[in-house]
Design goal:
This protein is an alpha/beta fold. The protein contains five helices and five strands; from the N terminus they run H-E-E-H-E-H-E-H-E-H. The chain has a single domain, classed as 3-Layer(aba) Sandwich (Udp-n-acetylmuramoylalanyl-d-glutamate--2,6- Diaminopimelate Ligase, Chain: A, domain 1). It is globular and about 35 Å long.
Length: 118
């Protein structure tokens, strides 16, 4: 699934990575508010749904080779978080949907979880 499809399904605002919408392919997805959960999962090429808006999310996404980060519940990360994502070339979006609803919308449109640990 292309990142542009994720954006459309979640009615999301793109905060970083506008130029990657049609080139980034998302292989699966999951939601986590504990970065330890993300590190223990196979997340390469996945979309991460999270309510956390800290630099740690972007740093963990970089280490895990996440394909994109989506902030849920309408949360807006600070400027420094978005700049870090741009520096790391990690697309960042935000949606007004809760993590539960966002996950469901992606699932209903064909996205699958990665390994069940998220």
């Amino acid at each position: 699934m292309k990142l542009s499809e994720v954006r459309d399904i979640l009615k999301a605002e793109v905060l970083a990575g506008e130029d990657q919408l049609d080139t980034t392919v998302i292989l699966g997805g999951g939601g986590a508010d504990l970065m330890d959960d993300l590190l223990s999962a196979v997340a390469k090429g996945a979309v991460l749904l999270t309510g956390l808006t800290t630099n740690q999310v972007i740093q963990t996404a970089k280490v895990s080779d996440v394909g994109a980060v989506v902030f849920v519940r309408g949360k807006r990360p600070g400027k420094e978080v978005v700049e870090l994502a741009r520096d790391f070339k990690i697309p960042v979006l935000r949606t007004r949907y809760s993590m539960f609803v966002a996950s469901g919308r992606l699932y209903m449109n064909g996205m699958r979880g990665l390994d069940g640990s998220w």
